[in-house]
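JOB MANIFEST
job_type = single_chain_structure
chain_count = 1
residues = 232
[input]
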Amino acid sequence: MEEEKFTLRYKLVWVFFFAVWMAYVESTVVVYLREIYYPDGFAFPIILIPQKMALIELGRELATILMLLSIAFLSARRGWQRFAYFIYAFAVWDIWYYVWLKIFLDWPESLLTWDLLFLIPVPWSAPVLAPVIVSFSFIAAALLILYFENKAIRFHLKKWEWVLFISSPILIFISFIIDAPEIMKQGIPDFFHWELLLIGEFMAGLALFQGAKRLILKTSNVKNSGENVGFE
């Protein structure tokens, strides 16, 4: 058991550092892009860059996700574990991306500063606080899932929990892209739908909480019956 705990801590630490240094690389690319296209500092409306550069940028964003998926598959063998490592790496990368930008450019000015988050499949935009909230919730969810999986307890959700869990990212995604048509017309976003993000966060949190509570009760019942608690 001690060796298993060490292995989990070992993986979490090294995935953390991978994501931190990956965020460094990602942020330096953004520094170069802003120096070229936003020499006076990034602000909306966005500047339409040449098609060739736009395609390269889309490829870079896709490569970022594939790198995070790769480290997740290297870190675990089962689905929930891989998912947990993916969202954990994604969250650390996203948070440290803004940390490095703050160090390099003294940007964002505040957590309410608007940012262009992503371009696939359409532009995502939000105050910086929004992706940071999502990232911290990702870390909490990842640690919760890995807590059970590390005890050889297979994490799983019931059907109604799956409905909540899948609906959550859809609502959050909508909150990020709802202004995409305006941004593509070089408009300026001025209102973020926090209610969609917070409802999405609540739905995912409720699904994971119910799943975790059920597993805790099941584990407790197994202990009380004197059976082996290391079930799957």
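[summary]
Helices lie at 2-37, 51-75, 79-105, 129-149, 159-177, 180-184, 194-225.
The chain is about 70% helix and 5% strand.
exit_status = 0
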